[in-house]
Amino acid sequence: MRFEQFSQGSSFLHRLDTRVKLISTFFLSLVLALCQSDLTALAGLVIGILLITAARLEMRQVCYRLLMVNAFVGFLWITLPLSYPGDRVFAVGVLSISSQGVALATLITMKTNAIILIITALLATSGTADLGHGLERLGMPRKLCLLLLFSYRYIFVIHQEYQRLARAARLRCFRPGTNLHTYRTYGYLFGMTLVKSCHRADRVRQAMMLRGFKGRFLTLNDSIPVRNDLLFLGAAVAGAFCLLALELGTR
Fold first, then answer.
1. Most exposed of 47, 48, 211, 241 (fewest Cβ within 10 Å)?
2. Taking the CA of residue 165 as centre, how many other CA atoms within 13 Å lie in the half-sphere pointing to its CB?
3. H/E stretch holding 95
């Protein structure tokens, strides 16, 4: 399991305040998610590419993420042109491809890639702990922020426990197949993972209470937005409003 492979870097976006990046991502992604114009989606895609370039991320890893996302978008290209009503541009027997379906699939593809690029450039350049503390300083419920931080901390522990149980099953000559024994074994495997996770959570809670945990994690990276942070925030919000104006102008 690999997380935070983009959080280590020295680019301008890596040094930005986490709260600034969260607010910028929210405004840009919101406008792109609600837009219905190809021109607006294309402009958002250009913004995403520019942010990725500014973050100086490893392009191979970025393309790998886009490939995973577009693997799901590919199903839309299979279904939408065939099922969406509109003008028929191509037909084979009872199957027909509509121009409106192709246009909708194109719009969704551009919007999806633009949002993923923006999120990768702005949020993936910060650590998960910094994102949790940033959300708390922005006024998000503390319990949700703690849930994010605990989930990130212990998902690796749960994964290691699952791997240990799966390795024990393989050492006992378990070979998965399409039979009742396989389904029962996987049920036991997931059940034991859940039970051991509950026991680990109880031990962690007791240990934290003994150490005086008061429901809040403290951080040494409690920075204050500086001039560059505010300038970027103003530019991001202005860019979001420009996208909104472009969307309204094309309707």
1. 211
2. 18
3. strand 95-98
DSSP 53: H
Tokens of 104: 């909708």
CA proximity to 45, closest of 64, 58, 65, 31: 31
Distance, CA of 24 to CA of 7 (rounded, Å):
17
Q: What is the DSSP string of 156-198?
A: HHHHHHHHHHHHHHHHTT----SSHHHHHHHHHHHHHHHHHHH
d(CA 114, CA 49): 8
- Which tokens is 245 given? 């104006």
Please give the DSSP secondary-structure letter assigned to residue 16: S
pLDDT value at 217 more than 90: no
Token pair of 55 as six digits:
């973050």
pTM for this entry: 0.81
How many residues belong to the chain?
Answer: 251
Q: What's the one-letter identity of residue 50?
A: L
pLDDT in tens, 112-145: 999 999 999 999 888 888 888 888 888 888 888 8
Nearby residues of 243 by Cβ (< 8 Å), 6 or more positions away: 28, 31, 32, 35, 40, 43, 44, 47
- Cβ-defined contacts of 68-72 (< 8 Å, 24+): 69/112, 69/113, 69/116, 70/109, 70/112, 70/113
1 contacts: CB under 8 Å, gap ≥ 6: 155, 156, 159
Q: Of all helices (H) and strands (E), which one includes residue 118?
A: helix 99-122
Residue 55: in which H helix or E strand, if any? helix 38-55
